[in-house]
């Protein structure tokens, strides 16, 4: 790499060595494949990460979303340092899980009872089991492009090509990975999102236990629900004896204190929470009404996990949730998001880049090659992903780390100065692409 740009050789050598002992040199398939290579980090502070080569990077990965308060916030660090004097793990109850649950019930409009897990993927599985137990039905509807964790039974049609996906009105189930149980999708129906007529027609058969969706599509693109879609989906679920599950792994506590359900004024039957719930600690949760969640308390539905409500993680959850009750938290986060989005729009316009941008508080999606706002997954298939990957490579060479799938996560630590510098780097990076 040119001396004019950052060097990542130490990270490259680290990944080479770690690959001798760790499969692929990493511990998640989603941490590989980016240019110039997977990076190793030594510390993080605010909106910055320091990598093994000593590069101080402005970061918009935010750990794939959790670090909404930025890296290493002092309030959480101090609380953990104090808590570790009391213990690490009990495998039992502590006062902090009760405090955290009370806070969630206060913040989240649909929540009356909470059950904690350690990851969003686990929480999804618990929610599906709960829905099937409550309805005595088996079919689950999910949507093309929506991601609900890496387990076999939900890893269908996450990013199929158009040929494999089949007819829009009745999409094929497309597995994501080799080794996926071919029968794990027997009770899964995949539909296009944002089309209420197709959803209502399938629900009318009366055999659906649950409809699970991202209330705003953030894992693939950044797509808002069309006007009235969520409300009509809830109404149709209720009419046909099905439950509506919001996977708020990304949207929870990010869009508003009460997540996307507050943002869009719609109450799901079950909510899945993760990522921003504990700013980097392994915590997730499912929530719902007292009547529904009581199935977990009377032994009707089994849910377990050795590390559920782990002591230090619950301390982090409490300290993180405290931020969301502050009057200016989400206003500030949204102002930062809008400032960055408007800056990106101007640069793309000035550089004559065909692009699409969408944003929600704390989240921006950016894609090249299309102009019209996408309404569903298939609208994203014409994106120029190769150009965007090249753009991300030019960005990181200049000290700004962005996800190659087009998602930008913004924290409260991204100051105006940081955002302005980012915009200038975007301009330089686009010029470099055009010159090449």
What Rg do the Cα atoms give?
A: 22 Å
Low-confidence stretches: none
CATH structural fold name of the largest domain: Aspartate Aminotransferase, domain 2
How far apart the termini lie comes to 15 Å
Largest sheet: 7 strands, mixed
- How would you classify the helix and strand content by structural class? alpha/beta
What is the CATH architecture assignment of the largest domain?
3-Layer(aba) Sandwich
Strand fraction equals 5-15%
**In what order do the strands lie side by side in the largest sheet?**
4-10-9-8-7-5-6
Full CATH superfamily name of the largest domain: Type I PLP-dependent aspartate aminotransferase-like (Major domain)
The average pLDDT is 96
* SS field, number of helical segments: 13
Tally the beta strands: 14
- Overall form: globular
- Residue share in helix: 25-40%
CATH class of the largest domain: Alpha Beta
Order of helices and strands: HEEEHHEHEHEHEHEHEEHHHEEHEEH
Write the SSE topology.
Blueprint: H1 9-18, E1 41-45, E2 48-51, E3 56-59, H2 74-83, H3 95-107, E4 113-117, H4 120-135, E5 139-143, H5 162-165, E6 188-191, H6 196-203, E7 208-213, H7 229-239, E8 243-248, H8 259-263, E9 270-273, E10 284-288, H9 290-293, H10 311-324, H11 329-350, E11 355-360, E12 363-368, H12 385-397, E13 400-401, E14 407-409, H13 416-435
Parallel strand pairs: 3-13, 5-6, 5-7, 7-8, 8-9
Antiparallel strand pairs: 1-2, 2-3, 4-10, 9-10, 11-12, 12-14
Task: Please sum up the structure shown.
By secondary structure, this protein is α/β, with parallel strands linked by helices. It has 13 helices and 14 strands. The protein has a seven-stranded mixed beta sheet, sandwiched between helices. It has a four-stranded mixed beta sheet with strand order 1-2-3-13. A three-stranded antiparallel beta sheet has the order 11-12-14.
